[in-house]
Amino acid sequence: MARYTGPKQKRARRFKEPIFGPSKALERKPYGPGEHGRSRRMKKSEYAIQLDEKQKVKYTYGMLERQFRNLFKKANARQGITGENLMKFLEARLDNTVYRMGFARTRRQARQLVTHRHIVVNGSVVGIPSFSVKAGDVISVRPKSRNLEVIDDALRNTSRRKFKWLEVDRKSLTGKFLHYPDMEDIPENINVQLIVELYSK
């Protein structure tokens, strides 16, 4: 499936958040891209605010519209609060889980590791980034891929922040998905209610 391959930092500056990871460009230019980036003070409509929030989440998790809409429908059909369900499903994606475990520096890098078949789930190689991880699943780096420079680099340079829903052993490059995360434990700055309102129109 196609992915956004345009200038990442322009997108980050548009949303004024480092959605693709640490951004020096955003630090240098904390305003929108383009010649009017500094001067745009137009008041946004309610629809524009909701659309921006949805676009930000799509770029953050590396999804296109159809895939994102289908995930929203799945979240809406599930019992519970739709917005919370959506965030839980996004966090349970395999590429995101690999990123959270620290085996990749960015979600884009984690997606590449998955598609190149370097990741194993419960003993079987899985090459689908959108694969939905379930409670109790064990995720690890394939034995013959454990000396990859990209993984060593990620382990050296990513923070050792612990997430409550994951159990990680960096030495063996193995982790366990314990349960879906609670909303307050997800570090991204996302107002998921705006997305629910957008799709509810």
Structure description:
With 201 residues, this protein is α+β, with helices and mostly antiparallel strands. The chain folds into 2 domains: 92 residues, Ribosomal protein S4/S9, N-terminal domain (Ribosomal Protein S4 Delta 41, Chain A, domain 1, Orthogonal Bundle); 86 residues, Structural Genomics Hypothetical 15.5 Kd Protein In mrcA-pckA Intergenic Region, Chain A. Helix content is 42%, strand content 8%. It has 9 helices and 5 strands. The protein has a 5-stranded antiparallel β-sheet, covered by helices on one side. Helix 4 packs across helix 5. It is globular, with a radius of gyration of 18 Å. The model has no long low-confidence stretch (mean pLDDT 86).
Describe this structure in a few short sentences.
With 201 residues, the chain is α+β, with helices and mostly antiparallel strands.
State the share of residues found in helices, binned by percent.
Answer: 40-55%
Strand content: 5-15%
Query: Judging by the overall fold, what is the CATH architecture of the largest domain?
Result: Orthogonal Bundle
Strand line-up in the sheet with most strands = 2-1-3-5-4
How many beta-strand elements? 5
Number of helices: 9
Number of domains: 2
Distance between the termini: 28 Å
Largest sheet: 5 strands, antiparallel
Level-1 CATH class name of the largest domain: Mainly Alpha
**CATH homologous superfamily of the largest domain - what is it?**
Ribosomal protein S4/S9, N-terminal domain
Order of helices and strands: HHHHHHHEEEHEEH
The dominant shape is globular
Query: Average pLDDT, to the nearest integer?
Result: 86
What is the CA-atom radius of gyration, in angstroms?
18 Å
Low-confidence stretches: none
